[in-house]
Design brief:
Radius of gyration: 25 Å
Strand order of the largest sheet: 3-2-1-4-7-9-8-10-11
Number of helices: 14
Strand content: 25-35%
Low-confidence stretches: none
Oligomer: single chain
Distance between the termini: 53 Å
Helix content: 25-40%
Largest sheet: 9 strands, mixed
Number of strands: 18
Shape: globular
Length: 386
């Protein structure tokens, strides 16, 4: 709290502008110079905040990150702006004009909601985090739409709001928390809060077991640029629905309850479904679209004889199928003069870097090798993006 108070002074803001582009390697030199004219505590606070803003640019964009304030946990746990914007637009399309954002953190979701025209009550029990969220709303010109309240979310009434959004803490002193009932607050409390509201969205870890999804909820897994970012449990939409949404786009694949695809021999093409598709258990929907099957009943690779274009999977043309044997792979890569080797694995204990060290690829050509199982047998598939 003291660091934030220092940075909000005119001297602190001026110093933040001065150090905003400081590279990590130059911090000691810059700090030594600035401490001749400024208090050491202020210099440390400014350089620390500049470092956080640089990290946050990947999530919030350079312009917003350069105006916002962050805590280390806030940068780590906040939602990527593209994902928050997608979620806010979905709520707006549902007719939501006011929302209680419980466990608001530094305000990333509240900012996206306010920019969608939604009035937000943002609540967090940590005084520093709440203060940062309040300053971020002001810094981005959204203070009239965002009310920040320092309080325990379990004691805040949400009556009168169109919707509730809950983002429970999923990290503890020992790192990530995988048990939904160990979230803070627990998932069961968040579900209870959601059921009291006309509409609700609960942000959960993408690894949430499907059996932990309440029957009254729609479950959506979201990826951005191919990286799975989160799962959202929606209330007041389509109970029992399952979907995978890919950003940018958005492109959404809705589950149809299809049975598992048949296993078939490896064809000319191998398709790697997007991570959100896999997490949502919608590989069968993609396989049907591709007129393909699985290479193994436990592996989420789809194979087909024809090339199909789909946003939900990346296609590779397979040139070789080998039993797992590093000597044979090394000989093949040497024969093909492959020096740029992409290694993908699913169902294999071999680490990509370990394989690269052993096969020592050399040459001007490139290839992709999949370490996987085909009909239960350890296999190497060699190919290239189609």
């Amino acid at each position: 709290m003291n660091d934030l108070a220092l940075l909000l002074t005119s001297q602190g803001r001026a110093l933040l502008d001065e150090v905003r582009d400081t590279a990590p390697a130059d911090e000691l030199t810059v700090a030594t110079r600035l401490r001749r004219e400024h208090p050491a505590e202020l210099v440390s606070a400014a350089l620390g905040q500049a470092r956080l803003r640089q990290r946050a640019a990947a999530k919030f964009g350079t312009e917003d990150a350069g105006r916002m304030f962050f805590t280390p946990n806030g940068v780590e746990q906040s939602t990527r702006a593209s994902v928050a914007t997608y979620r806010a637009e979905r709520l707006k399309a549902q007719g939501v004009s006011s929302l209680a954002d419980l466990c608001c953190g530094i305000g990333g979701d509240a900012i996206a909601l306010a920019r969608a025209g939604i009035r937000v009550l943002a609540v967090d029990r940590d005084p520093v985090t709440a203060a940062v969220a309040r300053e971020n709303a002001a810094a981005l010109g959204l203070a009239e739409l965002i009310e920040v309240r320092e309080a325990d979310v379990t004691e805040v009434g949400t009556e009168g709001y169109d919707a509730v959004f809950v983002d429970p803490a999923r990290r503890g002193g020992r790192g990530r928390i995988f048990d939904p009932e160990a979230y803070s607050p627990p998932l069961s409390w968040a579900v209870e809060a959601a059921l009291k509201a006309p509409r609700a969205a609960l942000k959960v870890a993408p690894g949430i077991p499907h059996e932990a999804v309440p029957g009254a909820a729609e479950a959506e897994w979201i990826s951005d640029g191919g990286d799975v970012k989160e799962a959202v449990l929606w209330f007041g939409t389509e109970p029992g629905a399952v979907r995978a949404t890919l950003l940018p786009g958005p492109r959404t694949l809705l589950g149809r309850g299809l049975p598992d695809p048949q296993v078939r021999p490896v064809g000319r093409y191998l398709y790697e479904p997007d991570g959100a598709v896999i997490r949502a258990h919608l590989v069968a929907e993609v396989a049907e679209e591709l007129d393909g099957g699985l290479i193994d009943p436990t592996i989420a690779y789809v194979t087909a004889d024809e090339r199909h274009v789909t946003p939900y999977a990346t296609a590779y043309e397979i040139s070789d199928q080998l039993p797992f044997n590093l000597k044979k792979l090394k000989a093949l890569l040497r024969e093909r003069e492959v020096g740029i080797l992409t290694v993908k694995k699913r169902g294999s204990a071999v680490e990509p870097e370990e394989l690269r060290r052993k096969v020592k690829p050399q040459g001007p050509n490139s290839a992709t090798v999949f370490l996987t199982r085909v009909a239960g047998a350890p296999t190497m598939l060699v190919g290239a993006p189609a």
